[in-house]
Amino acid sequence: MTSHLFAICCHATRPADLARFWSGVLGWKPADDPEDGITIASPDTAGFRIRFLPSQEPKVGQNRAHFDLTSTSLEDQRQIVARALELGGTHIDVGQLPEDKHVVLADPDGNEFCVIEPGNTFLADTGVIGALACDGTQEVGYFWSKALRWPLVWDQDQETAIQSPDGGTKITWGGPPVAPKTGTNRLYFELVLPADAEGEAELDRLLALGATRTDAGEGDSGRTMMLDPDGNEFSVRRHR
């Protein structure tokens, strides 16, 4: 059986502080964490979690992935931005234009995210996190569509997007040119195997789709670290 997307993991210098920030911005509640991280979860049980994992590595360059938050009105957009700033977020410049209607911010650990203006039809009915917007190739979009068995909902001009058959957050890739990778990604996918799944068979399936194993291998946690075709880290963990 196919592994499913359990969490977006985020390396953080201050996991507890970052969890409080995102919990406050999203309205998500703390959840049990399988190991030594801090987890918050969407009220929608079909959605993924966000896990904040301790790391002392400083942020280098712009992240390859960021959250796009949705808003229902201009006033709602202003309130989301104000709440994020009050919780410790900051305005940042990543090259957006003055006429752009979305607002670009960074969380207290420097991770970029956007608050999208109301009326964005592509993100309609996706939830508070409309998209995880990634820097990546068309090939990696195809890989993750097959890996998660999520259908492609956009495939044009080498830009791709996938979404769970149950709806919710979309995952998008902007196509070339893809910025060079600098160090380990701060955000990465964590997949979990169903309780009755055969782990090696699923790993073999992912390898056949284009993933590779990393030197990290598998530790006592039962987690296998892998790379997707663009070299982004992701993990596959046994169900507990």
From TrEMBL:
<dbReference type="InterPro" id="IPR041581">
    <property type="entry name" value="Glyoxalase_6"/>
</dbReference>
<protein>
    <submittedName>
        <fullName>VOC family protein</fullName>
    </submittedName>
</protein>
<dbReference type="Pfam" id="PF18029">
    <property type="entry name" value="Glyoxalase_6"/>
</dbReference>
<dbReference type="InterPro" id="IPR037523">
    <property type="entry name" value="VOC_core"/>
</dbReference>
<feature type="domain" description="VOC">
    <location>
        <begin position="4"/>
        <end position="118"/>
    </location>
</feature>
<feature type="region of interest" description="Disordered">
    <location>
        <begin position="214"/>
        <end position="240"/>
    </location>
</feature>
<dbReference type="InterPro" id="IPR029068">
    <property type="entry name" value="Glyas_Bleomycin-R_OHBP_Dase"/>
</dbReference>
